[in-house]
Amino acid sequence: MIVTGLVLAGLAAALHVYIFWLESFAWTTRARAVFGTTADQAAATRELAFNQGFYNLFLAIIAVTGIVLTLLTGASDDPSPAGASLLLAGTGAMTAAAMVLLVSSPDKRRAAVVQGTLPLLAVVAVTAALLS
């Protein structure tokens, strides 16, 4: 089950790196189509999006660090406490952020589901592996 959690956490991290790129570097170009903003809205929120993009990058880095530590210590039956902790911290925060988006902006339900499904499944898989 830990391998499943590692794969899901890796996919969630990759998605959050993509979101980082969109928000931090493509906000006034490609991201406008993804987020449905006008040129004026994108220009007005560029600095906020740039900062928010880095939050997504940092969550991905935490999850990837957890993956690496888990793999370095033998991912089989007994993942390292540090690796598991970082996996759960990164993917748990990703899940929580998706829930905040869902609750605060119900019209962005699809984005919240896309952003939160992989990390939620990773949390479930890693927790199941730790409890077994």
Largest sheet: none
Output the structural class: mainly alpha
How would the global form be characterised?
A: elongated
Relative helix content: over 70%
- Helix/strand order, N-terminal first: HHHHH
Number of helices: 5
* Beta-strand proportion: under 5%
The end-to-end distance, rounded to whole angstroms, is 9 Å
- Strand tally, please? 0
Low-confidence stretches: none
Number of domains: 1
Mean pLDDT: 93
Radius of gyration: 16 Å
Please provide a written account of the structure:
This protein is mostly helical and 132 residues long. The protein has five helices and no strands. The mean pLDDT is 93.
Brief summary:
Helices cover 84% and strands 0% of the residues. The protein is mainly alpha-helical. Helix 1 (2-25) runs antiparallel to helix 3 and helix 1 (2-25) packs antiparallel against helix 5 (109-131).
Fold blueprint:
Elements: H1 2-25, H2 30-35, H3 39-72, H4 81-104, H5 109-131
Helix pairs in contact: 1-3, 1-4, 1-5, 3-4, 4-5
